[in-house]
Design brief:
By secondary structure, the chain is of the alpha+beta class. About 25% of the residues lie in helices and about 15% in strands. It contains 3 helices and 5 strands. The strands form 2 sheets. It has a 3-stranded antiparallel β-sheet. The longest helix is centred in the C-terminal third of the chain and has 18 residues.
Length: about 150
């Protein structure tokens, strides 16, 4: 969307945030806003099941967004994009040495949270790889959970 004055930072609320902490995603309309130089991205449904249709979600996401950024109600929609965002089985990033593999490390499963979690994941991975030990990665994010 086009906004006359966009926030200077991303906004993440609703199902997206609860999904990170609980590992459960619902079809409740979440709200994410990512400001870019000439437009603002609004979206991130993170739905299970068949691919959603943009026309089914555009108004719902914009309505949800007006709670956080009231000017979205008057914003001009420049376009819509519906695409898959690969995620892990439990909706959490998978970080660390791949179980049973000495030299294979994995940083994946971020789904639609790659922009917001990528830098922190990268730092965790860099520290683990340099140390040759991924025991500092939280069990909830560790690739070791793949073999559990």
């Amino acid at each position: 969307v086009e906004l006359p004055e966009a926030p200077g930072h991303p906004i993440i609320a609703g199902t997206v945030t609860r999904g990170l902490t609980t590992g459960r995603i619902t079809d409740e309309a979440p709200f994410t806003l990512l400001p870019c130089p000439s437009w603002v991205a609004v979206g991130s449904t993170l739905l299970e099941g068949p691919e959603p249709r943009g026309e089914d979600w555009t108004r719902r996401l914009l309505d949800q967004g007006t709670r956080f950024v009231p000017s979205i109600a008057e914003a001009r929609v420049q376009g819509t994009l519906v695409c898959a965002r690969p995620k892990s089985f439990d909706n959490r990033p998978i970080l660390g040495r791949l179980p049973g593999q000495e030299r294979l490390w994995l940083a994946s499963g971020h789904g639609g949270r790659g922009m917001s979690l990528g830098a922190a994941s990268g730092r965790l991975m860099a520290e683990a790889i340099i140390a040759g030990d991924d025991s500092g990665i939280a069990p909830e994010l560790s690739a070791a959970r793949l073999s559990a």
